[in-house]
Amino acid sequence: MKKKVENLLSIIVVLSLVSCSQPKSSDDVSNLLPILLLRGGTASSTTSTGTTSTGSGTGSSSGSTSTTTSSGSTTLSISSFSPSFGVAGTSVTISGSNFSATTSGNSVKFNGTTAVVNSATTSSLTVTAPNGVTSGTISVTVNGVTATSTASFSVSPWTSISFTASDDVYRISCPNSNTCFALTQASSSANTKFLRTLDGGSNWTIYDTGYSIFGSLAVLAGGMSCPDINTCYLVGSKASSKILKITSASGSPSIAQVGNNGFYYAISCPTSTFCIATGTNSTQRTTDGTNWSSISASYTMVTVHCVDTNTCYGGQVNAKTIYKTSDASAGTPSWATQSISTGTSVYSLQCVDSNTCMAVGLSVLAKTTDGTNWNSLTIPFVSGTSTTLNGVYCFDANTCTIVGSNTTVWRTSDGGSNWANQSFGATNTNNAVSCTTSSSNTCYVATTSGYVFKRTSN
């Protein structure tokens, strides 16, 4: 008897589907469900996916995947997250709908790795990118239901290195891939500290120089140049400060004052004995590493880079002006004035040869390939980065890294036509960058809050 009823029901279902190619109303579907259920069928929930295109000009990633619960009563979704890039430890805000209002009610994963949820509302989560984070999508799970972003969180190739001291790191110089020196100072009245690593940043030794040389704790704090692993020169923007010379830098450092009193912003030493130091209406030079003399310049250069003992470039603050000398070793070097068409102030410049240089600053990004004419480049920008650029390092004519406020880091491999965003996704300010001469991938960035970031891949 049961078999006959089942066969009869099957005939009814087939006739219903043939005669009604499309249900006339939701009631028609409802009328069929009891029949289907009698046949052992099941009613299932649906999952809908929304797509939103994400352009390269944003720092937050839009796009959501909406997942409907089995009861059909709640839709959990991710609409965006910001920033769209970072490293382990980066704070990320996820926006969406129907999150749990308690932190423990949300399970958040970055490409499968569980993150800590710091705060939660039904429409916003603040989370920390976890250790071991890799590039990929972000998912949120609430009560067994998961929503996954359509856009990916991009992990920067930089890793953070923290010091025992939490002072801001203002300058860094790396003679080779394992040896780096950095400068910190806690306040304008505190002593400047000299930091050293001999193992690629795993361990750092901190030395008190015994002097306070940074008057302004900002992008114009002062300078450092280390032409080899044993010799470093330090200058600062505190009035009437002398130049500091560090010898045996990779062994037991010896720190001594050399040169004349001055108000210095930058120094460049292509050799261990030849240096040019620039400051307020003054330029100093040494040709033996000990004795310094004024080589009169009536302008203030806040950055300087000497390619060799003959060719040096300097940049002026509150102006888009570059100065160049081709006879730096002469008794009285002559400086030619060159101009950049856009921006406000030059903060840093770096050259790979006597004709090829890149300069950065306050809304400044420019390069020269002939040693005379400077072409302004488009400053790369996404939400969360900054157009205030504090440092630049060029490994060759094509490969350069620039850094700035808001942990801004960009890298080009085609001379500045295109830039890859490698920013950290935090609020620190990047003060300086130094790369090794042996590898374009090994670079270090000096930043605030006692951190140095290191990159070993592109």
What distinguishing features does this structure have?
2 helices; eleven-stranded mixed β-sheet; single chain; mainly beta; four-stranded antiparallel β-sheet; 458 residues
Overall description:
This protein has 458 residues and is mainly β. Helix content is 7%, strand content 45%. It contains two helices and 39 strands. The strands form eight sheets. Strands 1, 2, 3, 4, 5, 6, 7, 8, 9, 10 and 11 form an eleven-stranded mixed sheet that branches. A four-stranded antiparallel sheet has the order 12-39-38-37, with no helix packed on it. It has a four-stranded antiparallel sheet with strand order 13-14-15-16, with no helix packed on it. Strand 21 and strand 22 form a beta hairpin. Helix 1 (2-19) runs antiparallel to helix 2. It is elongated, with a radius of gyration of 30 Å.
Specify the number of helices.
Answer: 2
How many runs of DSSP E, i.e. beta strands? 39
How many angstroms does the end-to-end distance come to?
74 Å
The computed structural class is: mainly beta
Largest sheet: 11 strands, mixed
Helix content: under 10%
Any idea what the radius of gyration is? 30 Å
Present the secondary structure layout.
Layout: H1 2-19, H2 26-38, E1 47-49, E2 61-62, E3 65-68, E4 75-82, E5 85-86, E6 91-97, E7 107-110, E8 113-120, E9 124-128, E10 136-142, E11 145-155, E12 158-162, E13 169-173, E14 180-184, E15 193-197, E16 205-208, E17 222-228, E18 231-236, E19 241-247, E20 254-262, E21 264-268, E22 275-279, E23 282-286, E24 292-294, E25 301-306, E26 312-316, E27 321-325, E28 336-339, E29 345-351, E30 357-362, E31 364-368, E32 375-376, E33 389-394, E34 400-404, E35 408-412, E36 420-421, E37 430-435, E38 443-447, E39 451-455
Parallel strand pairs: 5-11
Antiparallel strand pairs: 1-3, 2-4, 3-4, 4-6, 6-9, 7-8, 7-10, 8-9, 10-11, 12-39, 13-14, 14-15, 15-16, 17-18, 18-19, 19-20, 21-22, 22-23, 23-24, 25-26, 26-27, 27-28, 29-30, 30-31, 31-32, 33-34, 34-35, 35-36, 37-38, 38-39
